[in-house]
Design a protein that fits this description.
Elements lengths: L23 H16 L9 H7 L4 H6 L13 H5 L6 E5 L5 H10 L4 E6 L2 H13 L5 E5 L12 E7 L8 H11 E10 L9 H4 L8
Parallel strand pairs: 1-2, 1-4, 2-3, 4-5
C-alpha cells in the first residue's frame, strides 16, 4: 500500500489493483453516493439493527431511548459509552447521520448541555432535525459540514465522538487537526472505527464502493 497523507490532487492508495489510483474527488463521490442512497431510503442494512447495536455495546436502555428513525445500523461501536458525556458539556458527533448517538448523548448532558451533530449529507441533517423536533429535543443541533472542515468554533467542545466515519475520509490528518482545534484544553475524544488487519482480496480492492461500505 502506498499512502501520502495530505495530498490534495491524488490520494495514492493502491487499493484497486496494481497501478490503479483513484482520485480524491472520485473517492469522495463514491462515499457520498452510497450514503445519499441510505439517506433517501433507497438502500437499508439487511440486519436486525437492535441486535447489531447490542453486539456493539448499546444497552437495552440505550436502544429504548433511540427515537424512531434515528438508527440505521451503520456504526461499529458505542463511542458514548467510552466518552461518557457529562451534565452541562458541549459534545459533537462527527458523521452523525440521523442522530442516533447525538440523541443518546443529549440524555447525558441534560438541559444545560449541547450535542452537535455534523454530517455532509443534507438529507441526513434534514431527517435528524425532523426527529429532534418531533421528539422535543431542545439540546441538540445538526449542522451541515465536512469532518475535514468542521462548522464549530475553536476551543468549543468538552467531548468529541465519532462512530465509524473517520475511515471514510480522504484526508484523515486534516480531520485530526480539526478535532484538536475544536476541543477545549483537557477535552476528550471517543472514536469507534475500523482498520485493516490483513490484506483485502483483489475483488474487494477493485470495487469503488468499498469506501462507502
Amino acid at each position: 500500500m502506498i499512502l501520502k497523507i495530505g495530498c490534495n490532487k491524488i490520494i495514492k492508495k493502491r487499493l484497486f489493483g496494481r497501478g490503479f489510483f483513484m482520485e480524491k474527488k472520485d473517492i469522495k463521490k463514491s462515499v457520498y453516493d452510497f450514503y445519499d442512497k441510505i439517506a433517501k431510503e433507497k438502500e437499508k442494512v439487511s440486519v436486525d439493527v437492535d441486535k447489531l447495536n447490542k453486539s456493539l455495546g448499546y444497552t437495552n436502555e440505550d436502544i429504548n431511548n433511540i427515537p424512531k428513525g434515528a438508527q440505521m445500523g451503520l456504526g461499529c461501536g458505542n463511542p458514548k459509552e467510552r466518552g461518557k458525556p457529562r451534565p452541562g458539556e458541549i459534545v459533537a458527533d462527527l458523521g452523525s447521520g440521523r442522530g442516533m448517538d447525538v440523541f443518546l448523548a443529549s440524555k447525558a448532558v441534560g438541559d444545560t448541555g449541547l450535542v452537535i451533530g455534523i454530517d455532509s449529507n443534507y438529507k441526513m441533517i434534514e431527517k435528524a432535525r425532523e426527529i429532534a423536533s418531533k421528539n422535543g429535543f431542545k439540546n441538540t443541533e445538526f449542522r451541515l459540514g465536512e469532518i475535514e472542515h468542521l462548522p464549530i468554533g475553536d476551543n468549543t467542545l468538552d467531548l468529541l465522538i465519532s462512530n465509524c466515519v473517520i475511515n471514510l475520509s480522504t484526508d484523515k490528518q486534516q480531520v485530526y487537526k480539526e478535532i484538536y482545534r475544536v476541543l477545549k484544553q483537557g477535552g476528550r475524544i471517543s472514536i469507534s472505527d475500523i482498520m485493516l488487519k490483513r490484506e483485502l482480496s483483489e475483488q474487494i480492492k477493485k470495487d469503488p464502493n468499498i469506501y462507502g461500505t
